[in-house]
Amino acid sequence: MEFVWFIFLPAAAALLIPALFRRVTGIHTGWFVLAVPAVLFVYYSTFVPHIAGGGQSVSVFDWIPSLGISFTSYLDGLSLLFTLLITGIGTLVVLYSIFYLDRQKENLGNFYVYLLLFMTAMLGVVQSDNVISLYLFWELTSISSFLLIGYWYKRDGSRFGALKSMMITVGGGLMMLGGFVLLGTMGDTYSIRELIVRLPDYAGDPLFTLAAVLLLLGAFTKSAQFPFYIWLPDAMEAPTPVSAYLHSATMVKAGLYLVARFTPIFADSSVWIWLVSGIGLLTLMWGSFFAVKQTDLKGILAFSTVSQLGLIMSLLGAGAIAYHTDDKMFRIAMFAAIFHLVNHAVFKGSLFMVAGIIDHETGTRDIRKLGGLMSLMPISFSVAFIGGLSMAGLPPFGGFLSKELFLESMVNLKNFDLFSFDTWGVLFPVIAWIASVFTFVYSFYFVFNTFAGKRKADKLPKQPHEAPAGMLVSPVILAVGVIVIFFIPNVVGKWLVAPAVAAAQPQLYSSPAAAEVHVAAWHGFESVPLWLTVGVIVFGSVLFASIPKWRAVYALQPEKLSLNGLYNGIMSASERGMNKLSRSYMTGVIRTYLIYMFAFLSVMTIVILFAKGAFRLDMDSLSPITLFAVMNAIVAILGAGMVIMSKNRISAIIALGAVGYSVALFFVLFKAPDLALTQLVIETISVALFLLAFRHLPAMKTHGETKQNKVVNAVIAGSVGLAMTLVAISAHSNKLIDSISQFYKDTVHTEAGGGNIVNVILVDYRGFDTLFEIAVLSIAGIAVLGMIRLRLAGKGSDDEKK
Amino acid sequence: MRKNNVILQTTTKVAFFIIFLFSIHIFFAGHFAPGGGFVGGLLTTGAIVLLLLAYDLETIQATLPFNFTIVIGIGLLLSFSTAAGSILFDVPFFTHAFGHFDLPLFGDTELHTAMLFDAGVYLVVVGAAITIIQSIGGDD
């Protein structure tokens, strides 16, 4: 079987959830769901040896081949690494959620449907080789995460957070689509691998930089980079399993994936390198600094995720530099990025789960109310301790190794003498070091303010105790993973990280083995990162100990001047503006709407006709005007005049009928029997209908028409008539190409086996048109029925009231 | 309506069938001569409107006991499935087929899938128009 279909396995499983949720009430739905990521994880694990050996696996399902759009499952080191994270951490999250979400109280059906949809979307994002389907899955992650974040939709905060995340990530996604289309047009293909191969053909294109920036907007919004990070803290309204999954392991990493994936294409561009490394570093700094301000456990984690994503992003930027220099030092950066990405997914997942456990067992996530839980929740404390110290970058935990690699890469940056890195590059290690200090501070703040110190039992809504065993399984597994990574980094490096690096920089490495970096915990005393780490510990400890003294700094920034204030301002301003705008023209009077429409139509037609020089009068090919036609025209004009002049409705209706019949007569005169027939019948029926409805209409009023009103109407009517006449005349006079009727005449017998062109056009050549027309007709019919039924029903209830 | 109009009613009885048969003729003639599903449907509608003018709504509902909203649905389904049916034969959506057949009574006849599509148009036009007329006419 083509393994591309495995992407859709979770979505297919989601179809069964509603039935399971309703029918099988005795068992938590999560147990069924658990099988899906577990099976996928085992399945995809079998690819590891093949991929690590330098191989690739491709499976394609052609979706719209004529447009070059396909579903592709392209497994190389990078996509396989992400796939394993999605399915592996997905399994643990589902297991955790079984104990976290109550079977009786929660609407589990919704939850697991969304979660499985999200899983398919993520798998699709990381495995798609085709940028259009990548975009499709990308936006599906936005939508499914919107549903997940807003899962407790009765809470205002959930809805607000869900909306905010969707506004920002979908907006960025749309920008990214623009980038994809630009790339696709320049490179003449939608396949990422093809784009990489064809890079020399279009790298000099003036739109290349624009495509890079647009793509980055998508990646930055998704990966919560500055200034788009503001959605991530609000997304913490989601249930904790969702936070652990979306905001540590999967969705926010999609942006990092995108940057890594497109590095081989854009690494040439200095804009790309500066933006990715600069914004990444800024985000790292910003996020780590503001994490200490937070009082909500998940808020701290949200800001820490923002900062860690920034860290990885800056490393990806530094990794792109490797394309410009032979210096081996820069090759470490990409390795460090991917390695830290793995570490982060593992330790942050465990930390989120601990935050969820604390919330679950104490009833609060407010760090000011927590403290001294160490003795009551020893296992949770151990997990938090391991995860937290890994986050702070301390040995003997996985985070230490990647943090050292990170610091080393940042120190190296100033040695790069292109794009003015030799001057500004000095800033990088400085900022990175300061951010690392704050990372240390917030990690300790998270762990020790919760578990150490004095217990404030009176402030807790619940009597705290250790979580049930089932809930602890997943975080403990992740915590063990954190330690294991520290002791066997080179195994992880060989099987997972190096293949991913080789896939992200295919031009640099011939095989995954060439991308391997030997990771060691000890580099000797002359190693710069070691002393930087020592500095982090010293300064971090001082800052951590004195948090109460300097925390007032955060109060200096007024809420209105923050990015959140900006977002709220934009949202409410656009709401108010749009309301005002629509109220200004939605008067509720149909005549006003008609005036707008016809005024626009006639003005645009006439202006364009003359601005483009399209008007032409060609008298040569006109047929002679017969007496019949003149008389008929006079009848039509008189009829139209009567409609306006008549004082009662019935004569207006009859005059309107006269106009219609004389138009039908024109069709007869000019030998269009089909049109004439249709026009005659339509006219008959519409006059009859008018008469039927007649008795319901109120007596004809003048609608308070003023002279001014009449003048406006006359002007608009006249200009519409003028516009249509001019269009008709120029359409007749400008024959740029031959009339299509000859084509119909030639093919109507051979292609459609018919004789009447008009009818064959309706049912065959333009069958689509007719199909949609009858659909519209059906809707109109049913709408009239509905409206009148509704009115009747309304009348009935009014009567009852009386 | 309110008054008994003997002349109109008597004429209508005959005229209705003539118009109806004519509309059927026009519908079938459509592929080679002026006509087709749209006009045919409108003509039938016209015939029913004539009935409505001569008699009242109740009489019509008793004479033609169809639910015309369902007629709309059938028509739409017929048209769409004709268009979609082409997919079964692995040709693009909306590809019509036609051919000559030697039928027992009619002799050499040309049959089209376009005719099925047109029949759907016919039904939708009749259904929608009568639905509108009935709901306006029945609104007292």
Question: Can you walk me through this structure?
Answer:
The complex is a heterodimer of chains A (802) and B (140). The longest helix of chain A is centred in the C-terminal third of the chain and has 35 residues, at 767-801. By secondary structure, chain A is mainly α. Chain A has 33 helices and two strands. In chain B, strand 1 and strand 2 (107-112) form a beta hairpin. The longest helix of chain B has 25 residues, at 113-137. The mean pLDDT of chain B is 84. The chains are: A mainly alpha (802), B mainly alpha (140). At the A-B interface, helix 29, helix 32 and helix 33 of A face helix 2, helix 4 and helix 5 of B.
User: Average pLDDT value of chain A?
Assistant: 86
Strand content of chain B: 5-15%
Structural class of chain B: mainly alpha
Compute the CA-based radius of gyration of chain A: 34 Å
Radius of gyration of chain B: 18 Å
Number of helices of chain A: 33
Helix content of chain A: over 70%
Percent strand of chain A: under 5%
Q: Helix/strand/pairing class of chain A, anyone?
A: mainly alpha
Low-confidence sequence ranges of chain B: none
Helices and strands, with pairings:
The complex is a heterodimer of chains A (802) and B (140).
Chain A: H1 9-23, H2 30-45, H3 48-52, E1 57-64, E2 69-75, H4 77-100, H5 108-127, H6 131-149, H7 156-187, H8 192-197, H9 199-202, H10 208-222, H11 231-234, H12 240-249, H13 251-266, H14 270-291, H15 297-321, H16 331-362, H17 378-392, H18 398-412, H19 421-424, H20 427-451, H21 469-487, H22 489-504, H23 528-545, H24 547-550, H25 563-585, H26 590-611, H27 627-645, H28 649-669, H29 673-694, H30 707-733, H31 741-747, H32 757-765, H33 767-801
Antiparallel strand pairs in A: 1-2
Chain B: H1 6-29, H2 37-54, H3 57-63, H4 68-85, E1 98-103, E2 107-112, H5 113-137
Helix pairs in contact in B: 1-2, 2-5, 4-5
Keywords for this entry:
heterodimer; A: 802 residues; mainly alpha; two-stranded antiparallel sheet; 33 helices; 2% strand; B: 140 residues; 5 helices; 2 strands; globular
